[in-house]
Amino acid sequence: MHGSTTMRGYSRKIASNMTWMLSLGALLLVVIVVLDILITVVRQGAGGISLSLFTTQTTGIAGGLQNAILGTLDLIFFSTLFAGPVGIMGGIYLAVFAPDRIARTLRFVAEVLAGIPSIVIGYFGYTMMVQAFGWGFSVLAGSISLSILTLPYIVRTTEASIRQVPKSYYEGALALGLTPFSALRTVVMRPATPGIVTGLLLAISIGLGETAPLIYTAGWSNFNPTLHLTKNPIGYLTYVVWTYLNEPYSSAHRLAYTAALLLIILVVILHLLARFLQPRVKG
Amino acid sequence: MGNDVSLMSDVRTYSVGTMATAARSQTLEVVRDAHESIIHVDRLTAFYGNKRVLNEVTLKIPSNQITALIGPSGCGKTTLLRTLNRMSYATPGFRHEGTVQILGQDVRSLKDVETFRRSVGMLFQRPNPFPMSILDNVTLALKLFGISKRRRNEIAEEMLGEVGLLHEIKDRLHQSPSSLSGGQQQRLCLARALAVEPKILLLDEPASALDPKSTRLLESLFVRLAERMTLVLVTHNLAQAKRVAHHTAFMESGELVEWGDTAELFSAPKDERTKVYVEEHIG
Ligand SMILES: Nc1ncnc2c1ncn2[C@@H]1O[C@H](COP(=O)(O)OP(=O)(O)O)[C@@H](O)[C@H]1O
Ligand SMILES: [Mg+2]
C-alpha cells in the first residue's frame, strides 16, 4: 500500500515535471514566432511610414494608404454600429430576461455563428447582399459581414459582464418601484459598462484583422470611401497585406508590411484600451 | 384546516426596547379595527419549472403589525415572500396558482407593477446597497420619480435619521457604502426602502448576516415601523420572531402548517410538526 502510493506519487511528479516543461516549450515557441513576425513587420514596414502614407491614395501597387486606412475605419464604424447595439441588447436579454430554454438555444446559435469560418460568412454576404440584394461590393455588404462575425463575441462578453453584477442590485431597484429599464440603466449597466466596452474593443480588433469576409463583399478601391453605402467598393488594410505580398515588386511588399504594421499598432492600441478599462478586481 | 387562519389571541401588551404596542384581541374572520388584514394569500401553489415549492398556502396578514414566517431552510419562505411583491416573477420558470391580494389588488393582474412595488418595500438577506454614494442610494428612486433635488435630500436626511445612520455617517454621505459595516449597510437599505413611503415591508432574513448588536438595533426599528406599516419578517431565528412578531406562521416543505399569535404558537403549538420544530430550535 505504502509502496504503491509513493510510486504513484513519484510518477505523478514526473508527469507534472513533463507537463511543466512541455508548457514552457510551447510558450517559448509562441513567443519566438510572435517576436519573429513583429520584428519582420517592423523592419520591413516602419520605413514606409511617412506623412504621404496618410495623405495619398494607392495607385496600382504604390502610393499611400489613405484610402485603405479610411476604408478600414469606415467598415469598423458601420460594423460596430450594427453589431454593437444588437449584441449588447442580446447580451442583456440573455443575462436578465431570457427563460432558460430560450437562453440555451440562443447561446447555441451564437456558438455556431462564432464557429463559422469567416470565408463562409464572406461567401454568404456575396450571394446574399452583393448579388441578390444588388448592393454590389460596398461598405454596407462589408460591414454587415463583419458584424455577423463579431456579434457572438459582443453578445458573450456583454452577458458575462452583466452576470458579474450582483442580481440583488437589479432586484433591489425593482423592489423600489423602478421599471426594469430604469433598474438596468441605473444599477446594472454602470458597473457592467467597462466589461462591455472591453468586449466591444476586442470585437473591433477581431474585425480589424479579417480579410476573408471582406474580399467578397467590400471589394477593393484605390480611392477614398464615398458617402454611398452601396455599389461603391471600398479599400481596407488587410486587403493590402493579403494581395500586395503576392506581387513581385518591392514597392508592393513595402506597402503590405506598412499596412500590417498599422494594423498591429491599431490592435495593440485597442488591447491597451481594453486592458485599461478592465474592471479592477476588488481585493 | 391547518392552513386556515383563525386567530384568537388575548389582549396583551407587547414591549420591545422602549416600544410598547397593544396587540388587540381579534378574530381575523371578523375584521374590525386598524389591524384588518392587508395581505390575503389564498391557496397559493408555486412552481419553479416542474418543481412545486409552495402547496396551497392560505394566509392573511394583518396590517400595522409584524408577522413572522419561520420554518426550516428550503421550506419556501423566500418564495412566498417574493411572490407577495411579484419579485419571484423575475425568476425564469416561476409560476403560481391561487391568488395573492395586497392592498385590495390581485397581484397577478396588476396594471402598474411599479406603483404597486413602491408601496411594498423589501429588504434582502444580504445587504445590497447600490454601487453609488450613500446619499444616491436613498435618493435614486425619488430622482426617477421626478422629485426635486431639495426635497430628495430632505427625505434622505429624514430617512437616514429614522434608521439611526445620520449621526453615524454624516460626513460620509458622498462616499461609497462599501465602507459601512454590514449592519449599517442593511439600515441604509432600510432607509432606501422607506424613502418611497411603502405601506408594507417584506423582510427576508434581514439580520441573518449581522452581529447581535446590529440585529437588535434593526429589530427595534422594525417594531417602531410597525406603528405605521405592515411588516412580514422571514427569519430562521425563533428568538427573533418571539421578540418582535405579533403573529407567526410556521412553514414546512412548502406548506403553511400553523399560523397564529406568536406567544401561542411557541407556547402551545396545535400541530405536532410545529411542536417538534419549535422544541428543536428554541433555547
Ligand atoms: N430560482 C430557483 N429555481 C429553482 N428552485 C428554486 C429557486 N429558488 C428556490 N428554489 C427551491 O425552492 C424551494 C424553496 O426555496 P426558498 O423559498 O428559498 O426557501 P427558504 O427561503 O425557506 O429557505 C427550495 O427547495 C429551493 O431549492
Ligand atoms: Mg430564504
Could you explain the architecture of this structure?
The complex is a heterodimer of chains A (283) and B (283). By secondary structure, chain A is mainly α. Chain A folds into 2 domains: 3-48; 52-277, MetI-like fold (Orthogonal Bundle). Helix content of chain A is 76%, strand content 1%. A two-stranded antiparallel ribbon of chain A has the order 1-2. In chain A, helix 1 crosses helix 11 and helix 7 (167-175) runs antiparallel to helix 8. Chain A is globular. The mean pLDDT of chain A is 90. With 283 residues, chain B is α/β, with parallel strands linked by helices. Chain B has one domain (3-281): P-loop containing nucleotide triphosphate hydrolases (Rossmann fold), CATH 3.40.50. Chain B has helices at 77-84, 113-118, 134-144, 149-162, 166-169, 182-194, 212-225, 238-244, 262-267, 272-281; strands at residues 12-16, 19-23, 37-48, 51-62, 66-70, 94-102, 105-106, 120-123, 200-204, 230-234, 247-252, 255-261. In chain B, the strands form 3 sheets. Chain B has a 6-stranded mixed sheet, with helices on both faces. In chain B, a hairpin with a 2-residue loop joins strand 11 (247-252) and strand 12. Residues 1-32 of chain B have low confidence and may be disordered. The chains are: A mainly alpha (283), B alpha/beta (283). The interface between A and B is medium-sized, with 23 and 27 residues. The structure holds adenosine-5'-diphosphate and magnesium ion. Adenosine-5'-diphosphate (ADP) is lined by residues 48, 51, 53, 71, 73-79, 91 of chain B.
What features would you highlight for this structure?
heterodimer, A: 283 residues, mainly alpha, MetI-like fold, 2 strands, 1% strand, B: 283 residues, alpha/beta, Rossmann fold, 6-stranded mixed beta sheet, 4-stranded antiparallel beta sheet, 10 helices, 12 strands, 27% strand, globular, binds adenosine-5'-diphosphate, binds magnesium ion
